[in-house]
Amino acid sequence: MLDAGFFRRWMTATTAVVEREADHLTELDSAIGDADHGSNLQRGFRAVSAALEKEPPATPGAVLALAGRTLISTVGGASGPLYGSLLRRTGKALGDAAEVTPEQLAEALRAGVAAVGQLGGAKAGDKTMLDALIPAADALSGSFGAARAAADEGALGTVPMQARKGRASYLGERSIGHEDPGAASSALLIGALADTADSAEAGA
């Protein structure tokens, strides 16, 4: 079972990996976007960690809801609303339960991913964060490791695609050959989830 502490550790692990990979994300974004994806997410997740430390929520759903609200209020551009919606909707789907199963998290994450699709008007194959998130949410029913692998594969799979949504879509065919920064950062989020699960298992 996964409790609020697990979800707080997931958000802390995400903050750490975003800090580490911020320059790389910005480099990816400089090729097909505004060159601010890494710095935007860095600012957002630092604020998430600070908010969770200040007043730790008592349930998994509340942790993600607070994280989502914080990202929406601190991150500029499209990333804040999209990541914020992902986490808020996932948190809402988890409800008020003090503990949830991995299967319940997988189901809730699918609801969060659907919210991202609705907000951005994107679908699989459009070269967006959904290309990492959709396969990850589907694979999470199997295991955390499978979700990580699916997200990584999905992110790399955006390289040969032509962007159909977001700022990168303005580049047309010139967007081909570059990894989508949103898909790359989504893979980091899922990777941090798998790392958190591995640590919990090692400590059990």
Strands side by side in the biggest sheet: 1-2
Number of domains: 1
- N-to-C span: 12 Å
The first-level CATH class is given as Mainly Alpha
Average the pLDDT over all residues and give the rounded result: 96
Q: What is the third-level CATH name, the topology? A: Serine Threonine Protein Phosphatase 5, Tetratricopeptide repeat
State the share of residues found in helices, binned by percent.
over 70%
CATH superfamily: DhaL domain
Q: Low-confidence segments, ≥5 residues, pLDDT <50? A: none
With helices defined by DSSP (H or I, 4 residues minimum), what is the helix count? 8
Give the radius of gyration: 16 Å
Number of strands: 2
The arrangement of helices and strands along the chain is EHHHHEHHHH
CATH architecture: Alpha Horseshoe
The 3D shape can be described as globular
Please report which band the strand proportion falls in: under 5%, 5-15%, 15-25%, 25-35%, 35-45% or over 45%: under 5%
Largest sheet: 2 strands, antiparallel
Question: Structural class given helices, strands, pairing?
Answer: mainly alpha
Task: Characterize the structure shown.
- This protein is mainly alpha-helical and 204 residues long.
- The protein has a single domain (2-198), classed as Serine Threonine Protein Phosphatase 5, Tetratricopeptide repeat.
- The protein is built from eight helices and two strands.
- The protein has helices at residues 4-32, 37-54, 60-74, 79-94, 102-120, 130-139, 144-156, 181-203, and strands at 2-3, 99-100.
- A two-stranded antiparallel sheet has the order 1-2.
